[in-house]
Design brief:
Oligomer: single chain
Order of helices and strands: HEEEHHEHEE
Number of strands: 6
Number of domains: 1
Strand content: 15-25%
CATH superfamily: RutC-like
Number of helices: 4
CATH architecture: 2-Layer Sandwich
Low-confidence stretches: 1-20
Shape: globular
Mean pLDDT: 90
Strand order of the largest sheet: 3-6-4-5
Largest sheet: 4 strands, mixed
Length: 163
Amino acid sequence: MKIVHALALAGLLGAGIAAPASAEVIRHTTPGSTFPILRASETTAGTTTVYLSGMVPKVKDESAPEGSVARFGDTETQTVSVFETIAATLADLGLTMGDVFKMQVFLTGPDGGPMDFDGFMKGYTQFFGTEAQPNLVSRSVMQAAGLVNPGWLVEIEVTAARP
């Protein structure tokens, strides 16, 4: 069996098909668009994919009622809080926000109304597409009927790459 695998590998290498020299994330921007997300991203062979669970905001006002939006802040405040938690988690794993290539965002609207996408974007653009951290991500944003805590307006999960 080992001889068959060796012959198959030799055939692939002879045909000019080989693993990339180094692991990386390839980021495909949207032509003609300045919107700060990618249209696609891909990882090459040898890249380790790291999946972070959904992160939620930290309490900003201990005096506000439990389960209230006031306890966690508006959408922008919650978005920044979540990204700060994500950045700290990535740092614990030896990664940075620049290693993130895929994101799923779940937003709810205050009092069951429409989500505050503009507030989310104000928080998002503090972490992605900046001079300090120019990498963009492939991203989906969706409005959820609700999150586990009624005061949460934002939950974000990310996928990062370790070359």
